[in-house]
Design a protein that fits this description.
Chain lengths: ~425, ~180
């Protein structure tokens, strides 16, 4: 009996860090948090807009049960509002405009009327308030000692299809509240950040005679053509050091995976199957996962780059046509039904190459284009449901999904 | 046995101490620091308008060529495909044979660009590859019919170039197609 207890304890240790195991946290068991707005500048519309943004962000960090009531208080009041006195935490902030029209925010986190954390923020224009809201949630999360949500501060880049063969490339925050169109006009798709610092990106231009991979430096707006291929040209992934690209090219009409060395400006063919090989993603510096039709239907495979060894990675589903990897975790898109016109939905699943566990991450609609965050804490994906595109965020260790809808157009592809 | 009991207790303590309460200490260091949030370096860059000079648009209006091109292009078929497939059905093969004859008649005058397209099921790379395999299947059929392969180029637009945008079975089947475009 004692041995059994010891064994189950050990087991719980082993599985505690396995993201393929669903963690069900009850909302009631999370500490409660209310937010008090003590702003002295700006109109009510803007105050409410910021409040909604901070509520959403604090909700996404998934460690509080957040009260959604917009209540106003005085920043220096020693006590929290009467309505909030039973809350575990109260987040109070004051927004004010300075002489340079910059937005300043003072924030304090109260626990039983004691200030436990405080920080001030400044941003040069109030229009980009959402980045302050993300930074506040990030800092609170750090203060609470939770695993980092650094991905909150990263930018998402996506292609919006506005008409047949017409698209825009947009840079946004992860909630799509901020949107800046960086490439307008023409037909440009599959944007991919060129490095961790997000100082530039690659994308496919379909306006030229041949599909061409281009690079844009977002600080200087300089555009460079990298490489062209007949038929198809997509940058599927960029190595952590930014020096190697995984491309899908189709020399002679045959889609295959290539590695491309940025410094040497040379490429190497990695797969040569007569069907379809696409969507390569780095698992680490030596292995890639990719989608191939070599079994007669799309599925996920792993290739060791030094050797020609290829192995099947996923053994469930009969149409798995997109994937992303982080270490030994693979998230992939599976077609749920063989009846293509009824309830044909695509759902995302998570597996680990080290266990047999499989976890379904989404339940309705068309869910595709999964991408792990750099730290593996979250997965971003595109959801198309009832004619609307959204960006979704899955917090793996909190078992929560969040959706941020796009008001106009359809998202074709994205990266973060 | 005693040691097992002991170690169970120690592990249990470790496990439960891991789920410690969320009572944080006052962090005085963080007081009065101001973070300048500068998250938008790209904001200063005006949108980059991409060059839209495609080969179709850059044709010099030198002769009646353009009219010819349009007339011939209108005679060229659209080749349709089954869901998730890129093989050519017998009725589509007939259309390709007719197109090949037409291609040979006006041979050496124009090049042809085959544009592969898909329905809206999926915006991933696989869908683009499917569009390309469709275009390539048409190319192989044309080459088998005697059209010079160097005159044929391929491109895939995935699901991004629909001719029909309703969410119906009929509509999707119209989008799974290969179009012929003539190039000078």
């Amino acid at each position: 009996m004692k041995f059994f207890i010891l064994f189950s304890m050990l087991l719980s240790f082993i599985y505690a860090s396995d993201a393929t195991i669903e963690v069900v946290k009850k909302v009631d068991s999370l500490p409660s948090l209310a937010i008090e707005d003590a702003s002295i500048s700006y109109d009510d519309t803007f105050k409410l807009r910021f409040f909604k943004s901070i509520v959403a962000d604090v909700n996404v960090i998934s460690i509080f049960n957040v009260d959604r009531h917009h209540r106003q208080s005085a920043f220096n009041a020693s006590d929290v509002l009467r309505e909030n006195k039973d809350k575990n935490y109260v987040l109070r902030y004051k927004m004010y405009e300075d002489d340079n029209a910059a937005l300043n925010i003072n924030m304090i986190l109260l626990n039983k009327n004691n200030v436990v954390f405080s920080k001030n923020y400044r941003v040069r224009k109030k229009d980009i308030y959402m980045f302050v809201s993300h930074a506040m949630a990030y800092d609170i999360n750090e203060f609470m000692g939770e695993p980092s949500v650094a991905w909150m501060k990263r930018k998402v880049i996506f292609t919006r299809i506005i008409a047949p063969k017409k698209s825009e490339i947009v840079i946004a925050d992860y909630t799509l509240a901020y949107q800046h169109t960086i490439v307008k006009g023409g037909f440009n798709i599959f944007p991919k950040w060129a490095n961790r610092a997000q100082s530039g990106f690659y994308y496919t231009s379909l306006d030229a005679q041949k599909p061409t991979l281009k690079y844009i430096n977002i600080k200087t707006a300089e555009v460079k053509s990298i490489i062209s291929s007949d038929g198809m040209m997509i940058c599927s992934d960029v190595s952590d050091d930014g020096n190697t690209l995984l491309l899908t090219m189709a020399k002679d009409g045959q889609p295959d995976i290539y590695t491309f060395d940025i410094k040497k400006n040379s490429y190497k063919k990695e797969t040569s199957y007569k069907g379809i090989d696409v969507n390569a993603q780095f698992m680490n510096t030596k292995e890639i996962v990719f989608i191939s039709s070599r079994l007669g239907y799309p599925n996920v495979f792993i290739k060791k780059l030094d050797t020609n060894e290829i192995e099947q990675a996923v053994f469930y589903g009969n149409s798995n046509s997109a994937c992303s990897a982080h270490g030994h975790y693979i998230v992939y898109k599976a077609r749920e039904s063989s009846n293509m016109f009824s309830e044909n939905t695509f759902n995302l699943h998570l597996i680990s190459t080290k266990t047999d566990m499989i976890r379904r991450l989404t339940a309705t609609g068309v869910n595709e284009f999964p991408r792990f965050s750099k730290d593996g804490d979250a997965i971003i994906f595109i959801k198309n449901y009832k004619g609307q595109s959204s960006i979704g965020i899955i917090r793996l260790n909190h078992n929560k999904n969040y959706l941020f809808p796009l008001l106009r157009g359809r998202i074709q592809s994205m990266d973060w | 046995m005693k040691s097992i009991v002991l170690s169970s207790v120690v592990i249990a303590l470790l496990v439960f101490s891991g789920c410690s309460s969320k009572e944080p200490a006052v962090d005085a260091k963080a007081m009065d620091t101001t973070e300048v949030v500068d998250a938008t370096p790209d904001e200063e860059v005006a949108p980059i308008a991409t060059e839209t000079v495609t080969s179709e648009e850059s044709v010099v209006n030198s002769s009646t060529n353009e009219l010819d091109m349009e007339t011939i292009e209108n005679k060229l078929p659209t080749i349709y495909f089954a869901f998730d497939k890129y093989d050519i059905t017998p009725d589509m093969q007939e259309k390709i044979d007719a197109a090949a004859e037409l291609g040979k008649e006006v041979s050496s005058t124009y090049k042809v660009k085959l544009e592969g397209n898909c329905d809206e099921w999926g915006s991933d790379e696989y869908n683009f590859a499917l569009g390309l395999k469709r275009a390539n299947a048409v190319k192989q059929a044309l080459v088998n019919d005697g059209v010079d392969s160097s005159r044929i180029s391929l491109v895939s637009y995935g699901e991004s170039n629909p001719v029909c945008t309703e969410h119906t079975k009929e509509c999707w089947s119209k989008n799974r197609r290969v179009d012929f475009k003539l190039l000078p």
